[in-house]
Write a structure and sequence with these properties.
β3 and β4 form a beta hairpin. This protein starts with 11 loop residues before the first helix and ends in a 5-residue tail after the last helix. With 96 residues, the chain is an alpha+beta fold. The protein has 3 helices and 4 strands; from the N terminus they run αββαββα. This is PTS EIIB type-1 domain-containing protein. Pfam families: PTS_EIIB.
């Protein structure tokens, strides 16, 4: 069974790491939250994020920009990926 937030055979850690890289790294994340379907990121520099590359990742349904947020909808929900992202941001000393 796949972890929540990933498609079958996926890995929440690998997906979170790739998302973080494609949005400009931990230093570009101002705030991280989630709802029932999406991981929501407020970025310091929106232009540093590659929305199309994030949208193309396995396990990602779509990417939406709304309300000053980059919202990443994930197959299976956001909880596992959000938890990994939050830990990566804490490890880097970035806000969560």
């Amino acid at each position: 069974m796949a972890e929540p937030g990933t498609e079958a055979g996926g890995d929440a850690s690998a997906l979170a790491d790739r998302v973080l890289e494609l949005v400009g790294g931990p230093g570009n994340v101002e705030r991280l939250t989630h709802c029932w379907a999406r991981v929501r990121l407020v970025l310091h520099d929106d232009a540093a994020a590659d929305d199309d590359a994030v949208a193309a990742l396995p396990g990602v349904i779509m990417v939406v920009r709304q309300g000053g947020q980059l919202q990443v909808a994930l197959k299976g929900g956001p909880l596992a990926v959000h938890a990994v992202l939050a830990q990566r941001l804490r490890d880097a000393g970035a806000p969560t």
